[in-house]
Amino acid sequence: MTPKTPGKTAWIYRRNVVGYVFILPWLIGFFAFQVVPMLGSLYLSFTSYKVVSAPVWIGFDNFTRMFGGDERFWKSVSVTLFFVVAAVPLRLAFALLVAILLDKDTKPAGLYRSLFYLPSLIGGSVVVAVLWKELFGLNGAINSIIKALGLGSGISWISDPRSAIWVLITLNVWQFGSSMLIFVAGLKQIPETYYEAAKIDGASGLRRFFSITLPLLTPIIFFNLIMMLISSFMSFTSAYIITSAGPTATPGGPLDSTLLYVLYMYLRAFQWFEMGYSSAMAWVLLIVVGAVTALIFKSSSLWVHYEVKE
Predict the structure, then answer these.
(1) Residue 151's pLDDT is what?
(2) pLDDT at position 90 over 90
(3) Which of 77, 148, 278, 304 lies in disulfide reach of 269, CB 3.0 to 4.6 Å?
(4) Is the CB of residue 120 less than 8 Å from the CB of residue 178?
(5) What is the C-alpha separation between 42 and 163, in angstroms, rounded?
(6) Is 243 helix (H, G, I), strand (E, B) or coil?
């Protein structure tokens, strides 16, 4: 190796400085709006902070109260786990199914892909949550269709503890557009020669799917699974808007059947002004999501297949 000359060292230094100058706006935003608030939240998680008064250090009391005496905390955990376990596989499967159906290089297929992607652009908005609330209301379009088909008089889907969570799950699954487009991109990377060889060998369509398509799509499934899990654990808007309908309704109702974790965390912070307790909940969520993500990454060597391995 040749030693670095002073001129070369100065050039490398100037190049690095230019690079840091270009990313300076991002660095400022990252530290000001992510690192500093996270550190502040970590401090508040060990305090009793009622917003109107200064934080008081209480150590691990928030966590002890959370795990030992807060029944609604455990209810929010169970509701969120059910929501994630039900919504993520359905959304993943539906996105893959639609992607396979639209994996065509035709104008109609491109139009349909755009239409199916549209809900993902607006799916997390307040407007869509309000629309969903109206659709599944007692006098909504869903009950009107049920009555027209003679299947019954309909129910108030949002007011029934047995069906309310499924309204949120359906809305989450409906937002499959971005995952569908990623699946379509993955399908187009699979060489057509694989399918042609399988057809010559007499493989059926189902066999081609399980022997060629599914194994080669596992990296895409892995990516979509991680993104869906994170977004599902953080679901808030739909639960808050849909379950807050009516003067007597409470967010997370009925009977806490839709009390998602982030919704309960929000209520603790902005309805009961327990910012310290809410910050502790936020860090528990971060640890859980990180642990689940790490487990999926650890298991990926068993089921994710790459064409090139290091």
Answers:
(1) 75
(2) yes
(3) 278
(4) yes
(5) 37
(6) coil
Residue 236 phi, psi dihedral angles, 5° rounding: -145, -55
Residue 103's pLDDT is 79
Say if CB 281 and CB 191 are below 8 A apart.
no
d(CA 85, CA 232): 9
What's the sign of the alpha-carbon dihedral 173, 178, 181, 185?
Answer: negative
Do 83 and 235 form a contact (C-beta atoms < 8 A)? yes
- β-sheet bridge partners, residue 56: 48
Residue 132: both structure tokens together: 């969903």
Place of tokens 């060489």: 191
Structure-token pair, residue 3: 């030693």
Q: Which 8-state DSSP code applies to residue 65? A: H
Cα separation, 157 vs 142, in Å, equals 9
Extract the tokens encoding 281. Answer: 């909940």
Residue-wise pLDDT tens digits, 236-247: 988 888 887 554
Whole-number mean pLDDT of the chain? Answer: 85
Cα–Cα distances (Å) from 88 to 10, 175, 204, in that order, read 52, 11, 29
Q: What is the dihedral of CA 185, 189, 193, 195, to 10 degrees?
A: -40
β-bridge mates for residue 47, sequence order: 57
Q: What is the pLDDT of residues 280-292, one digit of tens each?
A: 999 999 999 999 9
pLDDT of residue 261: 95
Q: What is the mean pLDDT of residues 195-201?
A: 89
122, pLDDT greater than 50: yes
Residue with token string 């639960």: 239
